[in-house]
Amino acid sequence: MKIALVSDIHGNMDALEAVLADIDRGGAGAVYSLGDNIGYGAEPERVVRTLRERGIPSVAGNHELAARRPDFLDWFNPAARQSLSVTFEMLSAASREWIAEMPMHRQAADGRLVHGFPPDSATLYLFQMSTAQKAAAMQELPERVCFVGHTHVLGLIGLDGHVLADVGLAAGLNRLDPALRYLANIGSVGQPRDGDRRAAYALWEPQAHTLEIRRVAYDTEAAAAKIVAAGMPAAHARRLLG
Ligand SMILES: [Fe+2]
Protein backbone atom coordinates (compact mmCIF):
# COMPACT_ATOMS: atom_id res chain seq x y z
CA MET A 1 0.00 0.00 0.00
CA LYS A 2 1.19 3.49 -0.83
CA ILE A 3 1.16 5.99 2.03
CA ALA A 4 1.10 9.69 1.13
CA LEU A 5 3.00 11.97 3.51
CA VAL A 6 2.54 15.74 3.45
CA SER A 7 4.23 18.31 5.66
CA ASP A 8 4.36 22.06 6.26
CA ILE A 9 1.18 22.96 4.38
CA HIS A 10 1.25 26.29 6.23
CA GLY A 11 -2.26 27.48 5.47
CA ASN A 12 -1.71 27.24 1.72
CA MET A 13 -5.01 25.87 0.41
CA ASP A 14 -4.04 26.31 -3.26
CA ALA A 15 -1.02 24.05 -2.74
CA LEU A 16 -2.98 21.52 -0.64
CA GLU A 17 -5.77 21.23 -3.23
CA ALA A 18 -3.25 20.51 -5.99
CA VAL A 19 -1.42 17.94 -3.84
CA LEU A 20 -4.62 16.15 -2.76
CA ALA A 21 -5.73 15.93 -6.42
CA ASP A 22 -2.35 14.41 -7.28
CA ILE A 23 -2.63 11.97 -4.33
CA ASP A 24 -6.13 10.93 -5.44
CA ARG A 25 -4.85 10.18 -8.95
CA GLY A 26 -1.96 8.13 -7.54
CA GLY A 27 -4.12 5.85 -5.39
CA ALA A 28 -2.56 6.18 -1.93
CA GLY A 29 -4.26 4.01 0.71
CA ALA A 30 -3.61 6.50 3.52
CA VAL A 31 -2.52 10.10 3.95
CA TYR A 32 -0.74 11.62 6.97
CA SER A 33 0.41 15.16 7.76
CA LEU A 34 3.69 15.84 9.56
CA GLY A 35 2.50 19.14 11.03
CA ASP A 36 2.74 22.91 10.52
CA ASN A 37 -0.60 22.82 8.78
CA ILE A 38 -1.07 26.49 9.75
CA GLY A 39 0.97 29.71 9.85
CA TYR A 40 2.36 31.86 6.95
CA GLY A 41 -0.51 31.03 4.55
CA ALA A 42 -3.85 32.85 4.24
CA GLU A 43 -6.30 29.94 4.57
CA PRO A 44 -5.51 27.99 7.77
CA GLU A 45 -9.16 27.28 8.56
CA ARG A 46 -9.85 25.79 5.11
CA VAL A 47 -6.69 23.68 5.36
CA VAL A 48 -7.52 22.32 8.82
CA ARG A 49 -11.17 21.70 7.83
CA THR A 50 -10.06 19.81 4.72
CA LEU A 51 -7.67 17.60 6.73
CA ARG A 52 -10.37 16.94 9.32
CA GLU A 53 -13.04 16.15 6.75
CA ARG A 54 -10.76 13.80 4.82
CA GLY A 55 -9.68 12.07 8.03
CA ILE A 56 -5.99 12.90 7.52
CA PRO A 57 -4.21 12.45 10.88
CA SER A 58 -1.45 14.92 11.77
CA VAL A 59 1.33 15.26 14.29
CA ALA A 60 1.89 18.63 15.96
CA GLY A 61 4.33 21.07 14.38
CA ASN A 62 5.86 24.10 16.05
CA HIS A 63 3.07 26.29 14.61
CA GLU A 64 0.44 24.02 16.18
CA LEU A 65 2.29 24.29 19.51
CA ALA A 66 1.98 28.08 19.24
CA ALA A 67 -1.77 27.76 18.68
CA ARG A 68 -2.02 25.70 21.87
CA ARG A 69 0.24 27.79 24.08
CA PRO A 70 0.44 31.57 23.57
CA ASP A 71 3.72 31.73 25.57
CA PHE A 72 5.34 29.60 22.88
CA LEU A 73 4.98 32.53 20.42
CA ASP A 74 8.23 33.94 21.86
CA TRP A 75 10.05 31.10 20.06
CA PHE A 76 9.19 32.69 16.67
CA ASN A 77 10.62 35.67 14.77
CA PRO A 78 8.44 38.85 14.58
CA ALA A 79 7.06 38.14 11.07
CA ALA A 80 6.02 34.59 12.00
CA ARG A 81 4.43 35.92 15.22
CA GLN A 82 2.42 38.46 13.20
CA SER A 83 1.29 35.74 10.81
CA LEU A 84 0.29 33.44 13.66
CA SER A 85 -1.75 36.20 15.35
CA VAL A 86 -3.83 36.59 12.17
CA THR A 87 -3.99 32.78 11.84
CA PHE A 88 -5.38 32.30 15.37
CA GLU A 89 -8.27 34.70 14.63
CA MET A 90 -9.21 32.65 11.56
CA LEU A 91 -9.46 29.28 13.34
CA SER A 92 -12.83 27.91 14.43
CA ALA A 93 -13.39 26.26 17.81
CA ALA A 94 -13.55 22.85 16.10
CA SER A 95 -10.18 23.43 14.40
CA ARG A 96 -8.58 24.57 17.66
CA GLU A 97 -9.84 21.41 19.31
CA TRP A 98 -8.39 19.26 16.51
CA ILE A 99 -5.04 21.03 16.91
CA ALA A 100 -5.14 20.60 20.71
CA GLU A 101 -5.49 16.83 20.34
CA MET A 102 -2.60 16.26 17.91
CA PRO A 103 0.11 13.90 19.22
CA MET A 104 3.82 14.71 18.94
CA HIS A 105 4.49 11.58 16.88
CA ARG A 106 2.60 8.86 15.08
CA GLN A 107 3.30 5.49 13.55
CA ALA A 108 2.41 4.50 9.97
CA ALA A 109 3.33 0.96 8.83
CA ASP A 110 6.88 0.50 10.22
CA GLY A 111 7.60 4.23 10.04
CA ARG A 112 7.61 7.04 12.59
CA LEU A 113 6.20 10.46 11.78
CA VAL A 114 7.45 13.50 13.71
CA HIS A 115 7.61 17.17 12.74
CA GLY A 116 11.19 18.14 13.59
CA PHE A 117 13.46 15.44 14.96
CA PRO A 118 12.99 11.97 16.48
CA PRO A 119 11.77 10.73 18.78
CA ASP A 120 9.16 13.47 19.19
CA SER A 121 10.46 17.06 18.81
CA ALA A 122 8.48 19.65 16.85
CA THR A 123 11.18 22.29 17.30
CA LEU A 124 14.62 20.75 16.70
CA TYR A 125 15.88 21.21 13.13
CA LEU A 126 17.74 18.43 11.36
CA PHE A 127 20.57 20.82 10.45
CA GLN A 128 21.17 21.66 14.14
CA MET A 129 21.97 18.06 14.99
CA SER A 130 25.44 16.51 14.90
CA THR A 131 26.18 13.28 13.05
CA ALA A 132 26.43 11.45 16.39
CA GLN A 133 23.08 12.86 17.57
CA LYS A 134 21.38 11.81 14.33
CA ALA A 135 22.85 8.30 14.45
CA ALA A 136 21.87 7.84 18.11
CA ALA A 137 18.32 9.07 17.52
CA MET A 138 17.89 6.73 14.54
CA GLN A 139 19.33 3.72 16.38
CA GLU A 140 17.08 4.23 19.40
CA LEU A 141 13.83 4.27 17.43
CA PRO A 142 11.66 1.15 17.33
CA GLU A 143 10.77 2.09 13.74
CA ARG A 144 13.32 1.57 10.95
CA VAL A 145 12.25 4.62 8.94
CA CYS A 146 11.48 8.07 10.35
CA PHE A 147 9.89 10.90 8.40
CA VAL A 148 10.25 14.57 9.33
CA GLY A 149 9.46 18.00 7.85
CA HIS A 150 10.18 21.36 9.56
CA THR A 151 13.15 22.56 7.43
CA HIS A 152 11.07 22.69 4.20
CA VAL A 153 14.04 21.10 2.39
CA LEU A 154 14.17 17.54 1.05
CA GLY A 155 16.78 15.17 2.47
CA LEU A 156 17.53 11.51 3.14
CA ILE A 157 19.99 10.09 5.67
CA GLY A 158 20.81 6.39 5.73
CA LEU A 159 22.28 4.54 8.71
CA ASP A 160 24.22 1.36 7.94
CA GLY A 161 25.16 -0.15 11.29
CA HIS A 162 27.02 2.79 12.84
CA VAL A 163 27.83 4.57 9.56
CA LEU A 164 25.67 7.56 8.70
CA ALA A 165 25.48 8.79 5.12
CA ASP A 166 23.64 11.67 3.48
CA VAL A 167 22.19 9.88 0.48
CA GLY A 168 20.05 12.77 -0.78
CA LEU A 169 16.41 12.76 -1.80
CA ALA A 170 15.56 13.67 -5.38
CA ALA A 171 12.22 14.22 -7.09
CA GLY A 172 11.02 10.92 -8.55
CA LEU A 173 11.46 7.38 -7.27
CA ASN A 174 14.06 6.70 -4.55
CA ARG A 175 14.93 3.13 -3.55
CA LEU A 176 15.38 2.30 0.13
CA ASP A 177 17.75 -0.49 1.18
CA PRO A 178 15.75 -2.78 3.53
CA ALA A 179 18.94 -3.42 5.55
CA LEU A 180 19.37 0.27 6.50
CA ARG A 181 17.63 2.69 8.82
CA TYR A 182 16.49 6.00 7.31
CA LEU A 183 15.62 9.55 8.31
CA ALA A 184 13.74 11.24 5.47
CA ASN A 185 12.81 14.90 5.22
CA ILE A 186 9.86 15.13 2.85
CA GLY A 187 9.99 18.89 2.19
CA SER A 188 7.02 21.26 2.26
CA VAL A 189 3.64 21.42 0.53
CA GLY A 190 2.88 25.06 1.20
CA GLN A 191 6.21 26.85 1.45
CA PRO A 192 9.19 25.06 -0.17
CA ARG A 193 12.58 26.64 0.60
CA ASP A 194 14.72 24.88 -1.99
CA GLY A 195 14.25 27.24 -4.93
CA ASP A 196 11.54 25.11 -6.56
CA ARG A 197 8.19 26.81 -6.02
CA ARG A 198 6.17 23.65 -6.66
CA ALA A 199 4.62 21.82 -3.69
CA ALA A 200 6.56 18.76 -2.49
CA TYR A 201 5.18 15.60 -0.90
CA ALA A 202 6.10 11.92 -0.57
CA LEU A 203 4.53 8.61 -1.61
CA TRP A 204 6.01 5.84 0.52
CA GLU A 205 5.47 2.18 -0.33
CA PRO A 206 6.92 0.24 2.63
CA GLN A 207 6.55 -3.24 1.10
CA ALA A 208 8.26 -2.13 -2.14
CA HIS A 209 10.98 -0.14 -0.26
CA THR A 210 10.41 2.94 -2.39
CA LEU A 211 9.98 6.60 -1.56
CA GLU A 212 8.68 8.74 -4.39
CA ILE A 213 9.00 12.51 -4.13
CA ARG A 214 6.43 14.35 -6.19
CA ARG A 215 6.51 18.04 -7.10
CA VAL A 216 3.16 19.60 -7.95
CA ALA A 217 2.66 22.96 -9.66
CA TYR A 218 -0.14 25.22 -8.43
CA ASP A 219 -1.11 28.89 -8.68
CA THR A 220 1.60 30.41 -6.46
CA GLU A 221 0.64 33.97 -7.53
CA ALA A 222 -2.91 33.44 -6.22
CA ALA A 223 -1.66 32.01 -2.90
CA ALA A 224 0.80 34.91 -2.52
CA ALA A 225 -1.90 37.52 -3.24
CA LYS A 226 -4.15 36.00 -0.56
CA ILE A 227 -1.38 36.37 2.07
CA VAL A 228 -1.05 40.10 1.35
CA ALA A 229 -4.85 40.58 1.24
CA ALA A 230 -5.19 38.86 4.66
CA GLY A 231 -2.83 41.41 6.25
CA MET A 232 -0.11 38.81 6.77
CA PRO A 233 3.61 39.65 6.20
CA ALA A 234 4.46 40.23 2.52
CA ALA A 235 7.76 38.41 3.05
CA HIS A 236 5.81 35.15 3.33
CA ALA A 237 4.03 35.92 0.04
CA ARG A 238 7.37 36.60 -1.69
CA ARG A 239 8.75 33.32 -0.34
CA LEU A 240 6.20 31.39 -2.43
CA LEU A 241 7.51 33.03 -5.60
CA GLY A 242 11.25 32.56 -4.96
FE1 LIG B 1 7.20 24.72 8.92
Number of helical runs? Answer: 8
Please tell me the total number of domains. Answer: 1
Hetero compounds: fe (ii) ion
User: Main β-sheet: number of strands, strand sense, barrel status?
Assistant: 6 strands, mixed
Query: Percent helix among the residues?
Result: 25-40%
What's the gist of this structure?
With 242 residues, the chain is of the alpha/beta class. Helix content is 33%, strand content 23%. The protein is built from 8 helices and 11 strands.
Describe the protein in words.
This protein is of the alpha/beta class and 242 residues long. The protein has one domain: 4-Layer Sandwich (Purple Acid Phosphatase, chain A, domain 2). The chain has helices at 13-26, 44-54, 62-68, 78-90, 93-100, 131-140, 220-229, 234-241, and strands at 3-6, 30-33, 105-108, 111-114, 145-148, 154-160, 163-166, 172-175, 181-186, 199-205, 210-216. The strands form 2 sheets. It has a 6-stranded mixed sheet, with helices on one face. Strands 2-1-10-11-8 form a 5-stranded mixed sheet. Strand 4, helix 6 (131-140) and strand 5 form a beta-alpha-beta unit. Helix 7 packs antiparallel against helix 8. The chain is globular. The model has no long low-confidence stretch (mean pLDDT 97). Fe (ii) ion binds next to loops.
How is the secondary structure organized here?
Elements: E1 3-6, H1 13-26, E2 30-33, H2 44-54, H3 62-68, H4 78-90, H5 93-100, E3 105-108, E4 111-114, H6 131-140, E5 145-148, E6 154-160, E7 163-166, E8 172-175, E9 181-186, E10 199-205, E11 210-216, H7 220-229, H8 234-241
Parallel strand pairs: 1-2, 4-5, 5-9
Antiparallel strand pairs: 1-10, 3-4, 6-7, 6-9, 8-11, 10-11
Fe (ii) ion binds at residues 8, 10, 36, 61, 150, 152.
